[in-house]
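Reviewer 2 asked us to include a model.

Predict the structure of this chain.
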Amino acid sequence: QVQLVEFGGGLVHTGGSLRLSCAASGSTKNIYAMAWFRQAPGKQREVVASITSAGEANYEDSVKGRFTISRDSAKNTIYLQMNNLKPEDTAVYYCYSGSLVEGEGDYSTWGQGTQVTVSS
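Predicted model (structure tokens):
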């Protein structure tokens, strides 16, 4: 089992910055990818940024050049640095991990969610 705990949400003005963190514990050796998702009211949950165990990062088009996902393997932690925030970034942000156990299959784990609000 994997547990994910998120930190760093808050309220900022347009153009401001926030840094989210997500600490993983438990069976972290089985994690092959981690990601940040977000969900705004009335909208579907969408992936914002992802990073594999090999360090490959991918971003949703609207955040490219503004957000950066990174990892600290020694601390089993990923981060999302969010710069030049816009009101449309307002959402609940969720940390995600994908795990693969040989002979058993894969499974997903979700963090508790943290609110990011960007005021006009």
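The mean pLDDT is 96. The two ends are 40 Å apart (CA to CA). We have added this to the supplementary material.
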